[in-house]
């Protein structure tokens, strides 16, 4: 076949495959629609988690691998620890080490803690700091940014302290980071960090926590308020208003609460970002889609 004939056949083939003006417009519209769809999907993936519905983990008879309601998020397991409190001379201090205790579920109220002895009656079977410093450990399957705590029941006072584990979790037995530690030493060398202490949580439908710190963690502790963990009292000891401590043998000023639920979001990027850092792949997808959309629009305008 001669070179001229070959070029003629190629030219005719290209002419047949080249869309007409109407077909070209239809093709361009389809490309534009596809790029717009990609851009929408990519940009939606960049929205911060705060724009999505919260996941809520509600206390129930389940204590291991318990699921949530709301957005897809990891399951959670619960356990309890207690440490006897030194109340001699009206002192308020938790000088003894924590040991695993009994987590108890109370329908309508939530989780309380029954410490080793003399602690099963009301209000002592709550998560409290009278006689024993009780804590509830929440162990999630993945990093979570908790933002709310809800109490189902409280009496006398309802101050709480929230801690998050910010150390490495790989190869770590979480029980070993708590057992035998005192309130004064729990944070020092075991990976636990204070999120904050919160006053009068029982008066709020859903108390906001972790607002300024925005920590994400797989392991969380919620405990009745203990000044040794952090958070200076804002009222007189024995008072039931503000962040205060109980003293002596009177219930006044001590905190008795039952944990009904917590809410938050799964962290999308780990660490303390709360999942608000977009993934590089999502950024690239959004950029490509938007650039393609701009190119299509310019080509359409140049052809008019």
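-> sequence recovered:
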């Amino acid at each position: 076949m001669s070179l001229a004939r070959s070029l003629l056949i190629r030219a005719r083939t290209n002419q047949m495959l080249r869309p007409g003006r109407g077909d070209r417009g239809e093709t361009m519209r389809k490309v534009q629609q596809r790029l717009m769809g990609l851009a929408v999907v990519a940009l939606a993936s960049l929205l911060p988690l705060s724009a999505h519905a919260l996941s809520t983990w509600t206390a129930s008879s389940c204590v291991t691998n318990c699921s949530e309601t709301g957005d897809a998020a990891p399951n959670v397991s619960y356990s309890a620890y207690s440490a006897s409190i030194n109340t001699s001379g009206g002192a308020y201090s938790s000088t003894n080490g924590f040991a695993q205790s009994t987590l108890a579920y109370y329908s309508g109220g939530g989780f309380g803690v029954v410490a080793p002895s003399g602690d099963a009656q009301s209000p002592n079977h709550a998560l409290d700091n009278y006689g024993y410093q009780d804590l509830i450990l929440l162990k999630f399957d993945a990093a979570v940014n908790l933002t709310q705590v809800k109490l189902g029941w409280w009496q006398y006072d309802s101050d709480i302290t929230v801690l998050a584990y910010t150390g490495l979790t790989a190869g770590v037995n979480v029980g070993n980071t708590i057992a035998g530690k005192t309130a004064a030493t729990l944070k020092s060398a075991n990976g636990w960090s204070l999120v904050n202490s919160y006053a009068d949580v029982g008066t709020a439908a859903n108390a906001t926590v972790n607002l300024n710190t925005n920590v994400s963690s797989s392991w969380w502790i919620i405990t009745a308020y203990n000044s040794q963990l952090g958070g200076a009292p804002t009222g007189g000891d024995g008072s039931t208003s503000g962040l205060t401590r109980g003293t002596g043998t009177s219930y006044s000023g001590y905190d008795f609460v039952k944990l009904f639920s917590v809410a938050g979001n799964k962290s999308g990027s780990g660490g303390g970002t709360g999942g608000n850092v977009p993934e590089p792949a999502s950024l690239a997808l959004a950029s490509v889609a938007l650039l393609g959309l701009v190119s299509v629009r310019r080509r359409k305008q140049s052809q008019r």
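Residues 56 and 263 are 4 Å apart (CA to CA).
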